[in-house]
Description:
The chain is of the alpha+beta class. About 30% of the residues lie in helices and about 25% in strands. The chain is built from eight helices and 13 strands. The model is unreliable at about 1-5 and about 50-55 (pLDDT under 50). Strands 1, 2, 3, 4, 5, 6, 7, 8, 9, 10, 11, 12 and 13 form a 13-stranded mixed β-sheet that branches. Helix 3 crosses helix 4 (about 130-145) and helix 7 (about 275-285) packs across helix 8.
Amino acid sequence: MSSISASAPLVSVFRHPAHFPSSVWDCLATQPCRSNIIYAHAVKLAAAAPNTSLDHSTDLWIVGWVSEPGSTVAFVVACTAGPIAPYPVFIFTPLPFSTLKSGLVQQHMKSIIHTLRLHIRPERLFSVFSTDCVADAFAAAWAKETGVQLANPSAVYYHAKLMFCNAATLKAGRQNVVADGAARMRPAVVADTEKLARLCHGFAAVSEPFVLTPAQAHQEADIMIQNRQAWVCAVERPGQATELACVVAVTRSTNTVSAITKVYTDPNWRGYGFAERLVRHVCESLLRVKESVVLYVAHNNPAAEKVYRRVGFADTTDPAGAIESWKEVGFDRNAVQLGHW
């Protein structure tokens, strides 16, 4: 394990976000779109904490400070778990990309990795998701520190831009007609479970390496319906069973921002514009109570980006105006225990 010099960036460790100092909450709340990947989970856990004096969570949160604990936040790291499996390590920085010089990032990553190694086994960390330069710096330092190499043949599981939509950017859309039937945009209900599970399974099948078994997809559908996190496009035709053509999941929310985390259309129903209609409908509903809706769209998926731009999504930028680009970097699957998100 590498040693840390006295001049290395300082970090603080928390087992529960209810213990965050106000400076961390202020940091996350000041940039709620950019921090949503961490902020939403922290808010959810803090609100659900029955007794903040008891701390038995397996989650781990690390805060890297610019100077001393309680000062300006440089990085917030979340090593947490979801309802199905552990999440990747998420890292958020409020700092403008232009200030993230390689030496500064590397020093912070060294301190953060030193702390992570005190609390987790190397096999727990199957991937890291952060802005490009931070993800790359962390992945290189973690591989060097632990000997766990990057995934092969491609270590980049996901490379995407962060986009947002609000009341000012939201655009009206056209209606699509389905022959001999109608399409309704609505929240998923318990009766949809089996059909929603098939959509979840289909989405995961094209999201390597985070595939789901049919049983896991059913579990995910159950959870989303129970938590009112899934919206569907239901195609209803006379004399036929209702079909679910498309799903949009909204699984990360704070007081002001919600994140669309899954958009998937059944291959049999592509070409009707259902994804655009459903995403717009979900945004219209969310923006009645939220200030913004965010989502990630892969750089190599221009068709999806066009759909989102027609709805009204625009590029999210850092405090200096640089467009947000995020990357998930994975580690050798033979040496880690793969999670899910």
